[in-house]
Design goal:
The structure is a homodimer of 419-residue chains. With 419 residues, the first copy, chain A, is an alpha/beta fold. Chain A has 14 helices and 17 strands. In chain A, strand 7 and strand 8 form a beta hairpin.
């Protein structure tokens, strides 16, 4: 099946929004064994969308559009699809009830404009949108399929996963070639160090490719296996796993969707230990990352944000003398923050961070990017020094992963001792 | 000047690489006053690239290609440009010396493939590539300009900034049309409510367009003004500002890059008041957002993450009776969290949140999305109830902006009283 993607949105052409939809959908379609031949982006302009859609339907079997569904956009995409495919619009009662309910729940009157969101090209299969007012649609005519999805990724992605994916799976059962992907997520090594460590493993067998990707605060080792069947592709992946794991060891913190916080959460659950945080330069982002995982209240109790020296003393009991002698950004302060947080909350483990995120506040002795992680456990109170590189945002993201990685390595040891 | 972008690379169509080049170049061209009408992505395939390039040259004045220059790609892009524009290839001596020098520096023999990297469409202006072996080229024929750049962003971006930007600056001086943009950022209104409130303002004068965009946890009102000169475009924008501001009032929290945390920071600075946070369902994200702004330690002291009832009592002094009678997610708990945080830190203002971010933990009386914001100030201790809609991530993002928005509205009043 030949597919292409059309993204609608002037904000994409202005460089105000990064087109993550094309990236996400390409990944999904590739996994389903559907070949994507083109991405096209046009503005919120009916003529140019029409031209793009006509051309796409001439050369491809499947066209997925994102964007142009908002109540303020005059139903750009749905109207254009009707025009190009020669279809009338029809009211979809359930969608009308849904949009009405959406506003009822908010306790507001439904603006007239939202009525349009319940009209679809005739014969459409509706794609419910749990997270917004614009449902999508699957439109089939002859051999051609157009799938209409909204632009906001947080609405579009669940709609794809809950409705579109299974629809396409059925469609493509006739062409069974498959590519499977597996991503090993690595922290604490530079991209070139990962490459060196992998060495000969990078010379892969037929049908397999390995790519390294530097992401913010982590490295991805992405393995793709292409074979006639899903089983054969899985076997290709399985053959590589022990080799990659033996080369990278504990630097791999997660596979595929497992991020650092999920990995730490799993280990806290397994070891039945509880965690608290004491944050300075990250301002709460470590707690934010830990609690992004649903159910994290089972092992995460909370913690402190002590952005000023005053609160480091007042809330965590960091000694005035420590701050004077060593400074707020020091191993000593990190240790006192961690042990203060642990004792004052009664949790098993406390992780603390203090550092210079920049752009200001650096000095020759303590440059921007210098970060100390304190770790207080039932066994010990330790501090670790890091020199991170990047802008404020990058340094804070690296600090979050660096701190949680220390917790992870401690918990890995505990879990191994227990076995 | 009408422009479009063509990205070449099978990795983009497979969803292995996010197309940040189109995003980056769109931003750059928009800033230069050049209008981008299309983005097209094709694989490493000569026929499809040829079709895309032909079409682009028919409808646009400027085409920028990225990718398809690697030594293993058979000079895909340069050959296709020659074919479509009817140009011969010629050797560029300096580039040959550069590529040879690159390999000499690495102490390696130059593979035969790299020789091709020194050939360009005749009459090209060469774009040096400090960070890789593939130089780019500016090719002009008649009224049409094609700019050829490599795919890796860390090579492409310096090449654009060091050579292409000034070339284009000169070109667009002849055609001085400019588009300027201004984004009004709104919280607390649905997209359709913003549209209704704006009403007749949406019927814009010649040269101006207004688009509404639903972003995560906020709405953007994007105004574009197109005129012969930057001054005229600025005047068009300036003419609309009072109209938009009078319709949306305090729901506008920021302009362009000013997010909610920057806006609150500015007001805290102006009123000389200090802020602390007490977070439950957001786990630290409010503090994280506030401290994303460099220099925030001037007004933000820190705070608490009290994810469990135990820590709400222990760290903030929330009464056991309150938790038993009203529950952790209640106006009463939000108020006690806020006043506990304010008193225990000595800050002027404390903002607290407690809510149900889901996906579990909801009930008919207290559904997922129910959030209370507590606000303790020198004047009062108040609580606000919200019913947010979305998944866990969306509800937490809305809670961050909802809490900070309460602080902002309080500070706006204070600032007005002072005047």
């Amino acid at each position: 099946m030949k597919a292409e993607l059309i993204s609608t949105g002037t904000e994409l052409l202005l460089g105000q929004t990064l087109n993550t939809n094309a990236y996400y959908l390409s990944q999904k379609l590739t996994t389903l064994g559907i070949n994507v031949y083109y991405h096209t982006t046009v503005g919120d302009n009916p003529e140019r969308l029409e031209t793009a859609l006509e051309q796409a339907l001439q050369r491809s079997d499947l066209v997925i559009t994102t964007g142009g569904l908002g109540p303020t956009l005059d139903d750009l995409t749905k109207d254009t699809v009707c025009k190009v495919m020669g279809l009338e619009r029809e009211l979809h009662e359930e969608s009308l009830i849904w949009v009405q309910g959406f506003f009822a729940k908010l306790g507001r009157d439904m603006p007239e404009n939202n009525l349009r969101q319940a009209y679809f090209p005739q014969g459409s299969r509706i794609i419910p949108n749990r997270l917004g007012t614009a449902p999508g649609a699957i439109v089939e005519k002859g051999e051609k399929i157009v799938i209409i999805l909204p632009g906001p990724p947080f609405e579009m992605q669940p709609m794809f996963e809950e409705t579109v994916e299974s629809f396409l799976q059925e469609k493509v059962q006739v062409t069974p070639e498959t590519t499977l992907h597996k991503v090993y997520r690595v922290f604490g090594m530079a991209e070139s160090a990962v490459e060196e460590a992998l060495g000969e493993v990078l010379t892969t067998p037929e049908g397999v490719s390995i790519a390294l990707l530097a992401k913010q605060a982590e490295i991805h080792v992405r393995v793709a296996a292409h074979a006639q069947t899903a089983l054969a592709a899985e076997q290709l992946l399985a053959g590589l796993t022990p080799k990659i794991e033996s080369k990278l060891g504990d630097a791999i913190f997660g596979i595929d969707a497992e991020d650092m916080a999920s990995s730490v959460g799993k280990l806290l659950r397994a070891t039945k230990l509880s965690l608290v945080t004491a944050e300075s330069c990250t301002g709460g982002l470590i707690g934010g990352a830990v609690t992004a995982v649903a159910g994290s209240s089972d092992y995460y109790h909370g913690g402190y944000v002590t952005y000023t020296n005053g609160l480091k003393k007042r809330l965590l009991g960091v000694e005035r003398a420590t701050l004077t002698k060593w400074g707020a950004v020091s191993a000593e302060t990190a240790r006192e923050m961690a042990s203060g947080a642990r004792l004052r909350t009664g949790a098993d483990i406390a992780v603390a961070v203090t550092g210079i995120a920049g752009p200001d506040g650096g000095s020759p002795e303590k440059p921007v990017g210098l970060v100390f992680v304190g770790l207080a456990t039932p066994d010990d109170v330790l501090a670790y020094r890091y020199n991170f590189f990047g802008d404020r945002q990058a340094i804070r993201a690296l600090t979050v992963n660096g701190a949680l990685n220390r917790v992870r390595l401690y918990l890995l040891d505990k879990a191994r001792e227990a076995n």
